[in-house]
Amino acid sequence: MKPYLLVYVVLTMLISCKSSKKIYKRDATANEISASTHGQKETERESFKDIKPQKREAKASKSIEKNIIDYAKQFEGVRYKWGGTTEAGMDCSGLIYESFKTYEIVLPRISRDMAKKGKKISLRKVNRGDLLFFKTGNRRNSINHVGLIVAIKNNDIEFIHATSSKGVIISKLNEAYWQKAFFEARRIL
């Protein structure tokens, strides 16, 4: 029985958080891609040692949603690493898990398990800090990707997530790929 359980856990983790969106220019680093697409200096991303959680009471003027979003954005440009939860590499659920955990909100580690938490909401009612869940690639029968809403501009939802091809990035839900893969939105906070 134990070998089957181990195989199940390994298979679950392999399919839990992978985007099938491909990038063909693989010679650029995640930092170069991020810096070139966002107009930021690479030096801004050199050290993640300064990333420190801001406790709820330390920034009373900021909402918990803003704190979580700001924390997640510090990882923009970090490369994708399956099972990763640090500046050395992140997967999509690792990014969300760590961002919420920093503010004492513990979610399951796998995206499809995260999708069982909170309250399901319609896209018309989403706010910053809500989660978007996707069924991507060959695994369209189960949730395998998650993103955190960081902005809503002109009826377009922007979310931060980690893709296997570009690492931690901000995407827009109105992009054809993400529209097709979108499954549901959930409110945790």
Automatic annotation (TrEMBL):
<dbReference type="Pfam" id="PF00877">
    <property type="entry name" value="NLPC_P60"/>
</dbReference>
<dbReference type="GO" id="GO:0006508">
    <property type="term" value="P:proteolysis"/>
</dbReference>
<dbReference type="GO" id="GO:0008234">
    <property type="term" value="F:cysteine-type peptidase activity"/>
</dbReference>
<comment type="similarity">
    <text>Belongs to the peptidase C40 family.</text>
</comment>
<keyword id="KW-0645">Protease</keyword>
<dbReference type="InterPro" id="IPR038765">
    <property type="entry name" value="Papain-like_cys_pep_sf"/>
</dbReference>
<feature type="region of interest" description="Disordered">
    <location>
        <begin position="35"/>
        <end position="59"/>
    </location>
</feature>
<dbReference type="InterPro" id="IPR000064">
    <property type="entry name" value="NLP_P60_dom"/>
</dbReference>
<protein>
    <recommendedName>
        <fullName>NlpC/P60 domain-containing protein</fullName>
    </recommendedName>
</protein>
<feature type="compositionally biased region" description="Basic and acidic residues">
    <location>
        <begin position="39"/>
        <end position="59"/>
    </location>
</feature>
<dbReference type="InterPro" id="IPR051202">
    <property type="entry name" value="Peptidase_C40"/>
</dbReference>
<feature type="domain" description="NlpC/P60">
    <location>
        <begin position="62"/>
        <end position="189"/>
    </location>
</feature>
<keyword id="KW-0788">Thiol protease</keyword>
<keyword id="KW-0378">Hydrolase</keyword>
